Amino acid sequence: MGFFQHVDQYLRDMYTLVSSSMIKRKLRIFFLYNWLVLKNVFSKITSIQFRRQKFLGYKVDFDNYGSFFALFTEMFVYNIYYFRSSEKAPFIVDCGGNIGMSLLYFKYLFPKAHIECYEPDPSTFQLLKKNVEQNKLSSITLIQKGVSGKDGKMKFYSYGDMKGGPGNTLLESQVNFKNVQTFDVEVVELKKENYKKIHFLKIDIEGAEGFMFDSFKDNDFLSLVDNVNLEYHYDIGYDGNKLSPILAVLEKYQYNVVINQNTLVAFYTSRSLYRKLDRKYVLLIDCFKDKNHL
Fewer CB within 10 A of the terminal residue: the chain, N end or C end? Predict the structure, then answer.
């Protein structure tokens, strides 16, 4: 990302901070965000890597400050996982927990939330567990498994240089980093009979979402779910993760579907940028059933 792209991103972030009605403690988040921007710039200029950050009463350990900053901006500035619920303790299923930033965000919204979190990468899982424990987060179940369309084992592609690396995936075609480590991980299918009610389902599994939605076609799991937030990975060269079958399943269960670009990649993807991105990009798909969730 060049200088002018960084400036453009910063201006969009600031506009969101000022204009969004979803941000709690807006003034505090405003000053915190700008402090983190300065630290991120300093880290890039000096190559000094910060490994821990305190914010909003939390402390988070990570391997890469830039990755942490991106997660913070997505969740606490853009509020990509924001939802409303009449429940004080909603039940949330988090597929792709990474280092636990999403868990902190959910607890920031709903301190009494019950959360089931899946993360298959062993080194990332240890960092996730540490962040949950050192923040004394309660009512959270951590599961060291991936989520797919059926129970079993699959090959996993991990960012070898970084715990919680961006892009860890079950799909070789989605690998966009060097020093890849590969190993088998356990994966599970989300089944209706294992749950009573899910108020929010987060899916961030780096291109393997097609497997999940293939099982959702037949197992009626989504009848239990009020809200679905899906990070969708478009790849014209891979037939197993097409958008149309996913949308068909969501429409079958009568979700409202709101589709946006990835907030931290581009405001607008032109054909030329699409080609530069190797004909791959990420969409954020926010889905809800009830009009009260608007």
Answer: C
